[in-house]
Amino acid sequence: MWDWIEREAIYLWYYLDIQARQIAPYWALGILLGSAVSVFGKKAIHGAFAKIGRRRMGWLGMIPASLLGIASPLCMYGTIPIAASFSAQGVKDDYLAAFMMSSILLNPQLIFYSGALGTTAVVIRVAACFLCGCTAGWLIRLFYSRKGKSFFDFTGFREGESRDTDPNLLRRFLKNVWRNIRATGPMFALGILLTALYQIHVPVDFVSGLFGKNNGFGILMAATMGVPVYMCGGGTIPLLQQWLADGMSIGSAAAFMITGPATKITNLGAMKIVLGWKRFLLYLAFVVLFALASGLLMDMII
Fold this sequence. Notes:
Oligomer: single chain
Largest sheet: none
Helix content: over 70%
Order of helices and strands: HHHHHHHHHHHH
Distance between the termini: 47 Å
Number of strands: 0
Strand content: under 5%
Shape: globular
């Protein structure tokens, strides 16, 4: 019994060390650059979006709206009050949908985390999230722009006070870094632990058989697994890295990277509040269908 425990502990320490060495630099870089964007660039990003919303750029306006959503460092519960203030300033629902959808899926910090997955995965993640945001905006413009009432209900939401208020820029930045470490560190550590346990106990053939290329069922499974498995962006990167190494197709990974953040429990709660049940169900259907289509397309191309 003790021999088994000792052997398991040795294996666990070995794989934990490997995972930490491979992933931790990307996590640390994401923390630093994400905090820099939050402290020094957030107001400029949101100001640019407000200007775009007032210019009435039509269908093309979804492109910068989605890009700015990706650039925004806020979580979903931070994005909704900002979107409520944009709505009060006259920004239309289609632009808000593009901004909010891409903001749910991706942020600067997560882009740098994803560097651990390789350049191809990063490019696909950014492109898929950008197109998902644009598509959400286009669909709102196509089906709801002429109905005369808002797609979103921002009643009760107002923009909260920023916590980045220290007059000293360096202290303001360091405080933001510390908040990000506290917010993402535990889940990042849990992700590394789960990945190490997975490497020890799950056969490589399992992943390649379930999520391998040209396996539409694998893409469906990956999209479905994104709902219960996705903890936070940093927490799932170690798992995704190992799954890709074990034979998961890039299409399955793309599907997981879309449904995961879009259906994270906190994000679902926020979206239910502003959408109501009927439109909330439409949101879920859109996310799953877009994830499946993206996954199938990626496996056809790559």
